[in-house]
Amino acid sequence: MNDKKQFHMDWPRSIPFIGMHVGIISLCFVDFSLTALLFGIGFYCIRMLAITGFYHRYFAHRAFKTSRWFQFVGACVGAASVQRGPLWWAAHHRHHHLHSDTESDVHSPTISGFWFSHMGWFMTKEHFDLKEERIRDFSKYPELMFITKYDTVVPALFFALCLAIGWSWQFLLPAAEGVWAMTVGQMIAYSFFASTVVLYHATFCVNSLLHLWGTRPYKTADTSRNNALISIIVFGEGWHNNHHHFQSSARNGFRWWEFDPTFWALKMLSWVGIVWDLKEVPPHIVHLTADAEVDKDEIASGDVQRKPPTVKTTEEETVTSEAL
Ligand SMILES: [Zn+2]
Ligand SMILES: [Zn+2]
């Protein structure tokens, strides 16, 4: 429909992202440590759940409700993933759903190529700014705006936490020997650099591979696909065709066998009242399968009928203030 857009890399502002990749070289300078590896895996799991449960299903799609304090907790843990602030992330994701696989999509592999959709788009000058008009329902919270505007604060605190754990382990736990020993350097190499970089590329697969590789049980106006393998590493987000078909649900795995630990975690939080009103998938939506292959040209033309957005960007009913 439009002429091909030109994007311009912003190398100076991309230094932190590139620096995280350079940082994993530190693994070559420390010995293997099982303890550091377990910390790295643990931080991967906690932060991935915050990205899938909060950045994506809560801030982008409002698939459940929670209190103001817990939305900030989810936002901070997600921000420790070093994927910029929650409102920047969610606003761009809403834009993706509105324009999937057209020239206006910020990360379509069928329009812009695999690498641009995977990690090129967010390093361009055109995509650093917050699309505030897409996220007005949350931009009224100053604490969320703060960690979105100053999106290095939480990553710096996460780095300090890794330093503190590593230092305490090395100097305050002299009894920790053998595989249980850990130095500051090992903690930083495994938990800050390696864990974060693996977390990056697992998350980015949703934007790149999940619009290229997998099945399409639903005929959506985009190239989204379901992929069970990717679902394992992104804790349920691999059911991306399901998700594009019915975006507002707290579960992406519509069927019992569709692995979706993010939903299970949200369900457990709902049992103790920390989150509530999880949006389910209506049965008639689940059973509506089409096994539909996609016409990329038709989608790229922008002529296909697109569902209206499932989130409102007004200021209505985001969180209930009495639950603070
Ligand atoms: Zn998508
Ligand atoms: Zn989404």
Helix-strand topology string: HHEHHHHHHHHHHHEHH
Q: Taking all residues together, what is the mean pLDDT?
A: 89
Largest β sheet strand count, sense and barrel closure: 2 strands, antiparallel
Distance between the termini: 47 Å
Quaternary structure of the protein: single chain
Compute the number of helices: 15
Q: What is the tally of beta strands?
A: 2
Unreliable stretches covering 5 or more consecutive residues? 312-324
The strands making up the biggest β-sheet line up spatially as 1-2
Derived structural class: mainly alpha
Overall shape: globular
Using the CA coordinates, give the radius of gyration: 20 Å
Bound molecules: zinc ion
Strand share of the residues?
Answer: under 5%
What is the helix fraction of residues, given as a range?
40-55%
How many structural domains can be distinguished in the coordinates?
1
Features:
binds zinc ion, two-stranded antiparallel ribbon, globular, disordered C terminus, 51% helix, 324 residues, mainly alpha, 15 helices, single chain
In short:
The chain is mainly alpha-helical and 324 residues long. The chain has helices at 11-23, 34-60, 68-79, 86-99, 109-112, 114-120, 136-139, 142-149, 153-172, 184-207, 228-233, 240-245, 261-271, 283-286, 296-301, and strands at 65-66, 275-276.
